[in-house]
Design goal:
This protein has 441 residues and is of the alpha/beta class. Helix content is 25%, strand content 25%. Helix 6 links the parallel strand 11 and strand 12. The protein is globular.
Length: 441
């Protein structure tokens, strides 16, 4: 492994020098001669903040241990680690006459496997392999699979939203009765919001689905999530963009969330995704689903379906905090940002020291909108004088719209080439169910 790759694994400085000299790579069996004696184990990735001074190995008992590089006299390569391989099971036989569903793979935990030598999770599965690992899908739908990306979701950008929305429209026009997007969970709610705007009135369900635990772990939720998502995409008499993930801590119930009302609320629980300021639009048990919200029926395909897929990359989401100064906003404006979503405190407030910078941004043509960093409730900027002052200089109140949804919506509106007057008008309109009726707030 070359120096550049080793740095990617968290080693630099003397630690990198020792590892390189030994000829070892992450995942190899090594012997460390230290001041306190000899240690044997599997070389693990180093920490990004301390990789220059700490060597990490996995001992034979499964525990990881970090050793100061200053205590290590020598590293000896004992045995090269075998590259983990995955052999998918044979493709199950398909049943004719079933609805056509396309599974689009993008990466993430649902398309990952554990490297049991290092304990790390890496992207490893294609959309086709996901299908093969869940043979029950062959009895639900006639499956087509496509791997568009194979990256962790934190690396997705508005450019990827454009590609995804265009790929979905292609599959719809090719006759898919539903589309399932296998997606990493960390930013799945951003993508679901973006696609909700780009795919205006899709004629079929478009379902984003992920997994909190990789497919080869006993506690994995990938199979049941995928079965529910494909079943809904194939058979639900409704259209729109949805997120389907585990509901509660049991093993048999999934929630169907609106793509513009959902948020990831836990780092690791299988029921991490929750509908905010409402309840899920549906519940799935097995292949049966109960609808508990107003959904649009499938649309007859009388013409080609086209995505409005352009997004503006140069937008920002800024969380307001006590003591925040104007430099962040000024820097964004000077960099050429076109839109800013402020995640304000409470009912939609910022420190008064920010008002001149916000005024400057708006004067320069930057669209500035306000959401609340509170999870539930809505922005009400007429209650206190700070909110009223923000309104008076042109900050847009976005009701109970989630900040992630607001970012995607602003990126999409600016990407459509609308002038600022139209963008301002449409930001405060309820286009896809992203805002509750103001009378209900």
């Amino acid at each position: 492994m070359d120096n550049q790759q080793q740095r990617k694994e968290g080693y630099e400085g003397r630690a990198l020098s020792l590892v390189t000299k030994s000829g070892a790579s992450v995942g190899d069996d090594v012997i460390l001669d230290t001041e306190s004696g000899r240690l044997e184990g599997v070389l693990m990735p180093g920490g990004t903040r301390s990789g220059h001074s700490i060597l990490v190995i996995k001992l034979g008992n499964g525990y990881n241990v970090g050793i100061s590089v200053n205590r290590v006299k020598n590293i000896t390569l004992k045995q090269k680690g075998k590259e983990p391989t995955f052999v998918p099971p044979p493709k199950p036989s398909s049943t004719t006459g079933l609805p056509k569903v396309t599974i689009i793979g993008t990466g993430g935990t649902i398309a990952s496997r554990i490297d049991y030598r290092t304990g790390g999770v890496k992207p490893a599965l294609s959309a086709e392999e996901l299908y093969l690992l869940v043979p029950e899908l062959s009895g639900i739908a006639d499956i087509t699979t496509r791997a568009v990306f194979n990256i962790y979701s934190e690396n997705l950008t508005p450019k990827h939203w454009t590609i995804l929305s265009e790929e979905v429209s292609k599959e719809v026009n090719n006759g898919a009765d539903g589309v399932v997007i296998a997606h990493g969970t960390d930013t799945m709610h951003y993508t679901s919001a973006a696609l909700s705007f780009a795919l205006e009135s899709p004629p079929v369900p478009v379902v984003l689905v992920g997994s909190q635990r990789s497919s080869d772990r006993p506690s994995s939720d990938s199979a049941i999530n995928m079965i529910g998502a494909v079943s809904f995409a194939a058979n639900a008499p409704f259209s729109g963009v949805f997120v389907i993930m585990r509901s509660g801590l049991g093993d048999d119930t999934l929630s169907v969330h609106s793509g513009v009302r959902v948020r990831k609320m836990h780092t690791s629980r299988r029921d991490a995704f929750q509908t905010i300021n409402g309840k899920p639009v549906g519940i799935i048990k097995g292949t049966d689903f109960t609808i508990q919200g107003d959904l649009k029926p499938r649309v007859a395909r009388s013409k080609e379906f086209r995505a409005k897929s352009a997004f503006e990359q140069n937008v920002a989401l800024v969380k307001v905090y006590p003591g925040m100064g104007p430099s962040m906003l000024d820097g964004l404006v000077d960099s050429g940002v076109r839109g800013v979503v402020l995640e304000g405190t409470g009912l939609g407030h910022v420190p008064r020291a920010l008002l001149p910078s916000i005024q400057r941004a708006i004067d320069k043509g930057v669209v500035v909108a306000m959401t609340s960093q509170c999870i539930n409730g809505a922005v009400r900027m007429t209650v206190y004088d700070t909110g009223r002052d923000l309104l008076s200089i042109g900050v847009l109140p976005l009701g109970d719209m989630l900040s992630e949804v607001a970012l995607a919506k602003l990126s999409w509106l600016l990407g459509q080439g609308y002038n600022n007057e139209k963008v301002v008008s449409m930001m405060t309109q309820n286009l896809r169910g992203e805002m509750a009726d103001r009378r209900a707030l």
